[in-house]
Amino acid sequence: MIPQHLFEQTLLQFFEPIAPLLEDASVSEVMINGPNQIYVERRGQLELTGACFPSSEALLAALRNLSQYVGKPISEERPILEGRLPDGSRVEALLPPVAPDGPSVAIRRFFRETLTVDKLVQFGALPAFAAHLLESFVRGKLNVLIAGGTGSGKTSMLNALSSFIPDGERVVVIEDSREIQFQKPHVVQLEARPAQPNGRGAVTIRDLFRATLRMRPDRVVVGEIRGGEALDIVQAMTSGHGGCMSTLHASYPKDSLTRMETMAMMSDLDLPLAALRNQIASGIDLVIVVARLRDGSRKLTHVTEVLGFDSERQSYQLQDLLVRKYSGLDDRGRIASELSTTGVVPSFLPRLAEHGVELSADAFRAATPGAAP
Questions:
Q1: Minimal CB count within 10 Å: which of 38, 86, 144, 154?
Q2: Where are the domains of the chain?
Q3: What 3-state class would DSSP assign to 368?
Q4: pLDDT for res 43
C-alpha cells in the first residue's frame, strides 16, 4: 500500500500547472475551462491567467488521480467528481460527455486561517454594532439560516458566527464535503459518503442528521441544505434543538423559506403543505443574507426575523431587523452602501434572556446613523 504522504505528493505533481495559483493567498477560487483557459477569483473579481495544462489528457490524468485519492471513481457513466485536494481545497469537476469541450473544474481554496467576525468587520462585510447583535443571537440559541448566492461568503459567515458559541457546548457539524472550521473545544465533524460503484455504502446528510440527534448535541450545524434533509432539520428545530445553524442558496429572506419548502418536499415523508409551512415558520428564528456585490465585495445585506406563517394570505410573516441600503458608487468606483437597523424590535428578546443574554430594545428602535460599512 502506498503511504499517504507519497500518494499526496504524486497527486500534486499532476496539478503542477496550477500549483502557484493554489499557493497564492489572494486567490479564492481556481476555475479550469479545459486545459488552455484557467481563471482565478481575487477579491471577488475574475481574472484570466496564463496557466495551462499540456493537453486535455494531462488534465484528465490529474482528475483520475484525484478520484483515486478521494475514493470516488469517474467514467462516462459517472462524469461528475466531488472531492478535496490534500490541503482541503474543494474540487468540483465535470468531465466529457457532460463537458464536451473538455474537463471543467472549479477549485474552492481552503484557507487554514479562520475568518473571524472581527476580520469581517475590518473587511467591511458588516459594521461592529451588527457583529454585537449577531453574537447575542447566537449565544441566545436562535435557529439561524444563512442564505446567499454562490461565492457570497455563506460558509465564511457560518465559520465566523461559530466563535460566539459558548465553549461548554457540544457542537455536531454535518457536511457533504468538509469546509467548516469551527475553532471550538468540543466539535464532532461528520461527513457524508457517496455510494460505491456497486451502489452500496452511501451515507447521506439525512442519515447523519438522524444519528446526530442521538449523540447528545447542544447544537447541530449542517454545512449546506441541499435536499430532503431540510425537513429533518426543521423538525429538529421545532422539537427543542435550539441554536441550529445552516446555509442554503437564496438571495432574499423570503426566497430562503420557499427554498426550504421545496427541499423539504424532496423527503420521503408525505407532510401536508400547510403543516410544513407552519413547521418552517416555527423552527427558523432568523434569516441572515450575505451577497457578493458587483464590485466583488461581500456584504451582510439582511437580518430578518421569522414571525410565523399567515394561512389566510399564504405567506411567511417576516420583519427585517437590519437592511443594507445602496447609494450609487463612491470615489473609488465601488458600490456605496450602509447597513442599519430598521427600528423594528424583535419578538425574541425574552427568549434571549432565558439563555442569559441581555439585549436592550434600544439597540433596534432607531436606525443607526453612520453605520457603514
A1: 86
A2: 4-108, 117-365
A3: coil
A4: 84
C-alpha cell of residue 142: 436562535
pLDDT at position 3: 66
Written as one string, the DSSP assignment of 249-313 is E-SSHHHHHHHHHHHHTTSSS---HHHHHHHHHHH--EEEEEEE-TTS-EEEEEEEEEEEEETTT
Cα separation, 289 vs 324, whole angstroms: 10
Q: Is 97 exposed, middle or buried (0-12, 13-18, 19+ CB in 10 A)?
A: exposed
CA distances for 274 relative to 209, 261, 264, 373, angstroms: 24, 10, 13, 40
Counts of helices then strands in the chain (DSSP H, E): 12, 15
Burial 231-261 (b: 16+ CB within 10 A, else e): bbbbbbbbeebbbbbbbbbbbbbbebbebbb
Q: Provide CATH code, domain 117-365.
A: 3.40.50.300
pLDDT at 369: 47
pTM of the model: 0.87
Residue 373 near residue 124 (C-beta atoms within 8 A): yes
Euclidean distance between CA atoms 155 and 284, whole angstroms: 18
Cell of 330: 463612491
The whole-number pLDDT of residue 367 equals 52
Under a CB-based contact definition with an 8 Å cutoff, are residues 30 and 109 in contact?
yes
Tell me the C-alpha distance between 193 and 101, whole Å: 29
Tens-place pLDDT, residues 37-93: 999 999 888 999 999 999 999 999 999 999 998 888 888 888 999 888 988 899 999
With a cut of 50, list the residues of the chain below it in pLDDT.
369-372
